[in-house]
Automatic annotation (TrEMBL):
The lineage of its organism: Eukaryota, Metazoa, Chordata, Craniata, Vertebrata. The gene is ANO9. It is found in: Cell membrane; Membrane. It is a multi-pass membrane protein. The chain crosses the membrane at residues 179-205, 259-277, 323-346, 366-385, 416-435, 540-567, 587-611. PANTHER family: ANOCTAMIN (PTHR12308), ANOCTAMIN-9 (PTHR12308:SF37). This is Anoctamin.
Length: 748
């Protein structure tokens, strides 16, 4: 025991837990938690229940200070050292780390806050827990205080530190391991985005060299005599293929031969990123003495600490419960897929309205206007359904009744991510693989309700639709969402501060002044960090799953992450109440989510290249149908004639219901994008040959990419040898010490 005038320290070493040093403050008051009650909502019954709860806390071993403000009652809560001694005693027999690696010094505040929060949440008085009392307005809220955060405020939570390295250890000492691992992962992800962003940007810029040189673009720009069928029969307007000259050149910027290599590169990048993160995580956990930490044992210890008479909740599984949850989840997934169909209907109706608009510009740029409008509607659906998905996922978790909070969090993460995945990507899947492919052909178009024709792809190809939708949705999420994420808590904080601190107000109690400052900050909940992780998972999905259609996605993600790191830091340190620290040695279920996204990215990009882009038709024409096929030796470009080959012929006399009358006169035949016979309009032999080629490419691409991922995962070990050797040495020293002690006992 070490003493001083202001404090007494007890340093206790154990084999199990690295944070086992405790401090008893005598001269300086510090508080683990603040409880708040609204006096305006207090009555006699609520006052009695509040006093009963506070009395039980005092019996448990808490020191309580009560301070009354004008409208609220504040309680400062400080746990007695006996609570931490018991906690340490319960965990001392585990083998998380050796005694030689335990840090010296007073108990970290993060440990105190974590334990006190658990006890306050679990304390049950007259059958009521704290959350029940909050619902009935007995208490308003509770929160830990922001204290000694100057270093983080001055060296981390500032916009001018955007390009500086993050102080991960300082973050861990203040917010706990889980928050620190989030920022460590986010920083690592941002750094690893640099090579992906540079590669995507170089690919995009290199395509500019072919902006005017592409043979396909030249043919389209010179196709003044090629008359195209109306995209929608109700438009009654023919158009010339040369009108899409500019869009054809733009499409070639991201729909070219380099797209295949970039998609394979991104598949390997995703694997290398995860493997290198696993190594970084192992180093971090080892440096924090958490490599062998057992989360389940800590939760059991805190349960016993809160109530020594509590009964063990065992693992349970009900096939009936799982079946009900599965059915309800499938119902919601079907609803989310249905929302994609709602988006399709909205785009069809917008097409009809814009085609009859009084504004000529809208009618001229009809397809572009519909694509942009559809992307905006898609973004609104994402915002609304995110709230619905979270509510449903929570209800399903409550119905499942998980044993611990950690188990509940894992189950909730899986459910919520699956719902979010379908919310964000169902519309993109439709655009990539169904748009313009189920519409029939001129004269026999598929119609909704017998009136509205399904939407066609952009005249320059379906890749343009996917590119525009990706750019708008991802751009809005990175700009509008970030602005709302920052401005909303900032404005809320300013309003609350003005309300709680009117001009000229002076407080004589320094504790109350500090408590009011923390009370004025924005509230946090168990989802505060979860929401940040989910936001990054969705962004990672956009960055990898559809990267073949949008090679600039890694660059946008890089810029967004540079802002996101400081935005989250400023929110947590300056605008929000202090998060309750949580212990962790990895990012948990999110790692499995990242691995699943990596596999989906390989499948999706392979199918985009095969079915959405023009890569396979161009490749087959070059080596099978074109002038260079079968080893022909000619001086012409191998893609000469591709445009004419890719367009089918329709005789205008075969129009049944609507005969186009506007635009070009005396048209006997028009062209449309498809591979159909000129006589009966059935699919031609070229269509079936291309379909077989597309399927073969998907199989080859996925096998090559997945084999590359497996080789990369094998080549880069998850755990560095230095970490393995360190753990091995610690185990060896512990066993040798036990053997030495055993030998002494035997000798005696």
């Amino acid at each position: 025991m070490q003493g001083s005038e202001d404090e007494i320290q007890i340093v206790l070493e154990t084999d199990s837990f690295p944070l086992m040093e405790f401090r008893y403050l005598q001269a300086t008051e510090t508080w683990d938690f603040i409880l708040v009650s609204d006096l305006q909502k207090t009555n006699t019954k609520r006052e009695y229940r509040r006093q009963r709860f506070m009395a039980e806390l005092e019996k448990t071993g808490f020191t309580i200070k009560e301070v009354e403000d004008r409208r609220r009652l504040f309680y400062g809560i400080r746990a007695h050292s006996r609570i931490f001694s018991q906690y340490m005693e319960l965990l001392k027999d585990t083998d998380c780390s050796s005694p030689s690696t335990l840090p010296q010094g007073p108990v970290p505040m993060t440990t105190r806050i974590r334990i006190v929060n658990f006890i306050l949440r679990k304390k049950e008085v007259d059958g009521e827990k704290f959350d029940d009392l909050v619902k009935d307005h007995v208490f308003e809220t509770m929160f830990p205080l922001h204290e000694r955060a100057e270093f983080l405020q001055n060296n981390w939570a500032r916009w001018r530190d955007i390009f500086y390295r993050q102080p991960i250890d300082k973050i861990r000492n203040y917010f706990g391991e889980k928050v620190a691992l989030y920022f460590a992962w986010l920083g690592w992800y941002t750094v690893m985005l640099v090579p992906a962003a540079v590669t995507g940007l170089l690919l995009f810029l290199s395509s500019f060299s072919l902006f005017h040189a592409s043979q396909i673009s030249k043919e389209i720009c010179e196709a003044n005599e090629t008359i195209m069928c109306p995209l929608q029969e109700h438009q009654h307007k023919y158009w010339r293929l040369s009108e899409t000259c500019t869009f054809a050149k733009l499409t070639h910027l991201f729909d070219n031969e380099g797209t295949v290599f970039f998609a394979i590169f991104m598949a390997l990048w995703a694997t290398v990123f995860l493997e290198l993160w696993k190594r970084e995580r192992a180093r971090t956990a080892a440096s924090w003495n958490l490599y062998g930490w057992d989360e389940e044992q800590e939760e059991l210890a805190m349960e016993l600490l809160n109530n020594p008479a509590c009964e063990l909740r065992k693992y349970q599984h009900s096939y009936l419960c799982s079946g009900v949850i599965l059915i309800l989840s499938l119902v919601l997934i079907c609803l989310l897929i249905g929302m994609a169909h709602v988006l399709v209907l909205s785009r069809v109706m917008v097409t009809f309205l814009f085609s009859h608009s009084a504004f000529p510009l809208l009618e001229q740029q009809l397809t572009t206007a519909v694509v942009v409008t559809g992307a905006l509607v898609h973004y609104i659906i994402i915002v609304v359904m995110t709230k619905v998905n979270k509510m449903v996922a929570l209800k399903l978790c409550d119905f499942e009744k998980p044993r611990t909070f950690s188990e509940r969090e894992r189950k909730f993460t899986i459910k919520f991510f699956i719902f979010q995945f379908f919310t964000h990507f169902s519309s993109l899947v439709y655009t990539a693989f169904f748009l313009g492919r189920i519409n029939g052909h001129p004269g026999n178009q598929v119609k909704i309700g017998g009136q509205w024709s399904l939407e066609e792809c952009h005249p320059s190809g379906c890749m343009m639709d996917l590119f525009v939708q990706m750019a708008i949705v991802m751009g809005l999420k990175q700009t509008v969402s970030n602005c709302v994420e920052y401005l909303s808590p900032w404005l809320t904080y300013r309003i609350r501060k003005l309300r709680e601190w009117p001009q000229g107000r002076r407080l004589h109690d320094p504790n109350l002044e500090e408590w009011l400052k923390n009370y004025s900050l924005n509230e946090v909940n168990i989802f505060s960090l979860f929401d940040e992780f989910m936001e990054m998972m969705v962004q990672y999905g956009f960055t990898t799953i559809f990267v073949a259609a949008f090679p600039l996605a890694p660059l946008l993600a890089l810029f967004s992450n540079l802002i996101e790191i400081r935005l989250d830091a400023i929110k947590m340190v300056r605008l929000q109440r202090r998060l309750v620290p949580r212990k962790a040695k990895d990012i948990g279920t999110w790692l499995q989510v990242l691995e699943a996204i990596g596999v989906l990215a390989v499948i999706a990009n392979g199918m985009i290249i095969a079915f959405t882009s023009e890569f396979i038709p161009r490749l087959m024409y070059k080596y099978y149908y074109g002038p260079c096929s079968r080893g022909s030796n000619i001086t012409a470009d191998c893609m000469t004639g591709y445009v004419n080959h890719s367009l089918s012929v329709f005789h205008t006399k075969d129009y049944k219901d609507h005969i186009p009358s506007q635009g070009i006169e005396h048209v006997t035949e028009c062209r449309y994008r498809d591979y159909r016979n000129e006589v009966d309009y059935n699919y031609s032999s070229e269509f079936w040959f291309l379909l077989a080629s597309r399927l073969v490419f998907v199989i080859l691409f996925e096998h090559v990419a997945l084999c590359g991922k497996i080789i990369a995962a094998w080549f880069v070990p998850d755990i560095p040898q230095s970490v393995k050797n360190r753990v091995l040495e610690e185990k060896f020293e512990i066993l040798r010490e036990k053997l030495r002690l055993s030998s002494r006992v035997t000798d005696v």
